[in-house]
């Protein structure tokens, strides 16, 4: 964004960070991997796990929330790994990603990989399976993210890094703990009707219509359903950041 260079100070409001109040290169300049997920508590658990795996810090040590000045998102850091919560749904993760990409830019980070981790509804898979996303698709199975900007509809690509998918699949084979597949992830706008659930406050379709839709999704290559992957892929692509 060329407008950023004209700003005297960039306030990352939802992180409670800013270029005028924090030395972002000193705090984040060594970041190489960012893992994002919906729940703050889950991302805290994740950074504790990563610290143990990398042997950074003493066992059982606390990892402070870098974004403690706000209740919007939580952020934790161990060595070159940043763990950030993004809330639920496209609007919430979109806000977080805008400020995360700016943070990485201001911190002068390079060769960063961003990975979204989280629960999702599987299609045709055993519970507990891991899906590595090839493409994010919308609810009509198209690999695109549609957004209205200044009154105009903008369509953005949702392809994700193919080589990274292969590397993650190889890691899964070496670990050999989870059933892992590479497939498309369907991103919906809500949890209930958008995902064909029968237990929402409103449901104007039959169970057979739901099952037929899920069969069509599976036949198109969809293997799981969630609510954030499309804008995640679009913003990573536009920013030139490797994402999965």
From TrEMBL:
Keywords: Glycosyltransferase, Transferase. Pathway: Pyrimidine metabolism; UMP biosynthesis via salvage pathway; uracil from uridine (phosphorylase route): step 1/1. Signal peptide: none annotated. Gene3D superfamilies: Nucleoside phosphorylase domain. This is Uridine phosphorylase. It comes from Tinamus guttatus (White-throated tinamou). Its EC number is 2.4.2.3. It comes from the Eukaryota. Phosphate binds at residues 72, 116-119. It catalyses: uridine + phosphate = alpha-D-ribose 1-phosphate + uracil. One of its GO terms (cellular component) is cytosol.
């Amino acid at each position: 964004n060329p407008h950023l260079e004209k700003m005297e100070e960039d306030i990352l409001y939802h992180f409670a960070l800013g270029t005028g109040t924090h030395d972002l290169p000193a705090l984040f300049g060594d970041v190489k991997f960012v893992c994002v997920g919906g729940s703050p508590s889950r991302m805290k658990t994740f950074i504790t796990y990563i610290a143990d795996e990398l042997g950074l810090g003493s066992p059982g040590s606390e990892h402070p929330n870098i974004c403690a000045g706000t209740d919007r998102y939580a952020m934790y850091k161990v060595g070159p790994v940043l763990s950030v919560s993004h809330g639920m749904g496209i609007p919430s993760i979109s806000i977080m990603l805008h400020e995360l990409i700016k943070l990485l830019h201001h911190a002068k980070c390079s060769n960063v990989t961003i990975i979204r981790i989280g629960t999702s509804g599987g299609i045709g898979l055993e519970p507990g399976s891991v899906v590595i996303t090839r493409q994010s698709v919308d609810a009509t199975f198209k690999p695109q993210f549609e957004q209205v900007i200044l009154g105009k509809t903008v369509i953005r690509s949702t392809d994700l890094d193919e080589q990274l998918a292969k590397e993650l699949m190889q890691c899964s084979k070496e670990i050999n703990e989870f059933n892992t597949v590479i497939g498309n992830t369907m991103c919906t706008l809500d949890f209930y009707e958008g995902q064909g659930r029968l237990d929402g406050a409103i449901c104007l379709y039959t169970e057979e219509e739901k099952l037929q839709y899920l069969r069509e999704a599976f036949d198109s290559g969809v293997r799981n359903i969630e609510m954030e992957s499309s804008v995640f892929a679009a913003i990573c692509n536009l920013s030139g950041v490797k994402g999965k």
